[in-house]
Design a protein that fits this description.
The complex is a heterodimer of chains A (about 300) and B (about 240).
Chain A: E1 5-7, E2 10-12, E3 16-18, E4 40-42, E5 59-62, E6 65-68, H1 77-91, E7 95-100, H2 105-117, E8 123-127, H3 144-157, E9 162-165, H4 173-182, E10 187-190, E11 194-196, E12 199-200, E13 205-206, E14 213-216, H5 221-234, E15 239-242, H6 248-257, E16 261-264, H7 267-270, H8 274-288
Parallel strand pairs in A: 3-16, 4-7, 7-8, 8-9, 9-10, 10-15, 15-16
Antiparallel strand pairs in A: 1-2, 5-6, 6-14, 11-14, 12-13
Chain B: E1 2-15, E2 18-24, E3 36-40, E4 48-51, E5 54-55, E6 59-65, H1 69-75, E7 82-89, E8 101-107, H2 111-123, E9 127-134, H3 143-149, E10 152-157, E11 164-165, H4 168-175, E12 181-185, H5 188-197, E13 202-205, E14 221-224, E15 227-230, E16 237-239
Parallel strand pairs in B: 8-9, 8-12, 9-10, 10-11, 12-13
Antiparallel strand pairs in B: 1-2, 1-7, 2-6, 3-4, 3-7, 5-6, 13-16, 14-15
The chains are: A alpha/beta (about 300), B alpha/beta (about 240).
């Protein structure tokens, strides 16, 4: 039974990857289970400078999901490169994905270049869901032009494969995917969280300190599947599918929709062992559906 | 950290909207009072983080208030039902920081996380003065449990319906207890006032709305004088000196 997948020439022992922001820098899970069962780890989103992020409450529970407004708390790219990545490499042999964010093109370029230089980094994942401070606050990933601008600039300074992580909060994700492909992206990750809000009725204010936050969890699986499938048909880049994945069947569904690897996000927060469980369940789920090789189902829909 | 199935032994109303749930299962991985567990409830996306009041290799006791749909659902669970419990979580109180006399100040449900702390302090031979604050007599929990341990307990209620009338800080001002280290757990405003009033070192147990409960999501970060810290994994217990109110 073949669970190994290959994206941009990089081999993953299986397609299961904890998504950025739901697994820390991997180090937080050291000793909890053997991380080497995972195909890869997408690390906590990192910016050029350290960030505290937003004030609490940062979390709001929803039916089959949750809202977060962590706001990219991270220690900055220097700490990523000098401390987190070397420490992670000692305990993890799989694919290391450095997730990078920025508030201007220059910031993306500087942070990506630094993360790319680290020998432990295998893939750069560029989160284009940040508000563009020079472009009026709209996220870079919400227009084909700005997504392409960031992609092209980052590609110039990176030797490792660059995956652009797309936002679902757009009218036409296929157009943005094509723009990233034309700008030189090596792959795409989708979807990021869906913008949402919750209100505390009794208190007459939002549950989270920030009015809006990112909605994720099982409820968004159908949205993610649809968007992965749209992007699969709109361009030829390999896709890491993400959004609402909670079990081995969801992984198979995501791969059939067009993903070559699958990220697991919010489910880690309710069950920190879920990625290991999915890896363990995968062979029996494949057997149940008569799948011998995961590569045979990628994008069959 | 383990995710273990526990079986409910009892789930009883012990004060207004407050329940005490005992579960059977192996909770021996918990090491200190003030640590917590995260309980999965059917149909709820996130777990409910609750302090471990007491525990052993055979069971676990938690005390909770019905504040929303999740805890209301929890209160309807019956003996024999099973719950998935993530544990041990958080750092817990350090009883060894007290040399002779401890002052423990709790408010409302803050009584639960300090229960085993008081037990630990007494086992170490420390004198324990416990000041417990509640809104009203119908909100009082665990006072008899603490007395049974042998702690010197003062109950304070806001409306004076039981014990002294007023705030815990009023009672401390009146009693002037001797202590070399203090511990506090309760509403943030209460702990802030306690820390402002008490001199000397102490530990504070903070609370925040949590995502994962185990340090991977950074959903419960607070400001401290040592920089940003996760309440779930770096805390919930912090040195008084480090807390930024």
């Amino acid at each position: 039974m073949v669970t190994e997948v290959c994206l941009c020439g990089i081999k993953f022992r299986n397609p299961v990857i904890p998504a950025s922001g739901t697994f820390g820098f991997g180090l937080e899970m050291a000793g909890v289970y053997d991380l080497d069962v995972l195909g890869g780890i997408s690390l906590k989103g990192t910016t050029l400078e350290p960030r505290y992020g937003n004030e609490c409450p940062r979390i709001a529970e929803c039916p089959d999901g949750m809202i977060n407004s962590v706001g990219l708390q991270n220690p900055g790219v220097e700490v990523l490169v000098n401390e987190k990545l070397p420490a992670l490499r000692k305990i993890f042999g799989g694919v290391v994905i450095a997730n990078v964010s920025g508030f201007s093109v220059d910031e993306y370029v500087a942070a990506c270049a630094r993360a790319d230089q680290a020998p432990q980094t295998d893939i750069i994942e560029v989160n284009v869901s940040c508000p563009n401070v020079h472009g009026g606050g709209l996220a870079f990933g919400t227009s084909p032009e700005s997504a392409a601008q960031v992609t092209a600039a980052v590609k110039q300074v990176c030797r490792k494969p660059v995956f652009v992580k797309l936002s679902p909060n757009v009218t036409d994700i296929a157009a943005i995917a094509r723009a990233c492909e034309e700008a030189g992206a090596d792959g795409l990750t989708l979807i990021n969280t869906v913008l949402g809000m919750r209100i505390d009725i009794a208190a007459r204010r939002c549950v989270t300190h920030e009015k809006y936050g990112g909605f994720s969890g099982r409820a968004i699986l159908p949205i993610a599947l649809r968007m992965v499938n749209q992007v699969r048909h709109a361009c030829s880049l390999p896709i890491m599918g993400c959004g609402g994945v909670a079990c081995a069947d969801d992984v198979l569904e995501m791969m059939m929709a067009g993903a070559s690897a699958v990220q697991v996000g919010a489910e880690n927060l309710r069950n920190p062992f879920v990625c290991r469980q999915i890896v363990e369940e995968l062979p029996s789920a494949m057997a149940k559906y008569g799948i011998d090789d995961l590569n045979s189902i990628i994008g069959i829909i | 950290m383990k995710d273990i199935k526990f079986k409910i032994e009892s789930n009883k109303l012990i004060a207004r909207d407050i329940y005490r749930m005992t579960l059977s299962g192996d909770a021996s991985s918990i090491e200190r009072g003030g640590q917590f567990v995260d309980i999965m409830l059917e149909g709820r996306f996130l777990r409910r983080p609750l302090a471990a009041m007491e525990w052993s290799g055979r069971g676990l006791t938690v005390v909770y208030r019905t504040v929303g749909k999740g805890t209301a659902q929890m209160s309807s669970l019956k003996a024999g039902e099973e719950l998935q419990v993530l544990l041990p979580l958080g750092n817990g109180f350090d009883a060894s920081k007290c040399r002779e006399k401890a002052l423990v100040v709790c408010g409302g449900l803050g009584a639960s996380p300090v229960y085993t702390l008081v037990k630990e302090l007494l086992a170490l031979g420390r004198e324990v003065k416990l000041v417990m604050g509640f809104n009203s007599a119908c909100d009082v929990v665990l006072a008899d449990d603490f007395r049974a341990l042998g702690a010197d307990v003062t109950v304070v209620t806001m409306d004076g319906s039981l014990g002294m009338k007023g705030l815990v800080t009023d009672a401390i001002g009146e009693l002037r207890p001797q202590y070399d280290f203090f511990y506090t757990c309760g509403p943030k405003v209460m702990m802030k006032a306690v820390c402002a009033m008490l001199c000397g070192p102490g530990e504070v147990s903070l609370e925040e709305r949590m995502g994962c409960g185990c340090g991977i999501c950074y959903g419960c970060t607070c400001h401290t004088k040592k920089g940003p810290r996760r309440v779930c994994a770096d805390g919930p217990v912090f040195d008084k000196e480090d807390v930024i109110w």
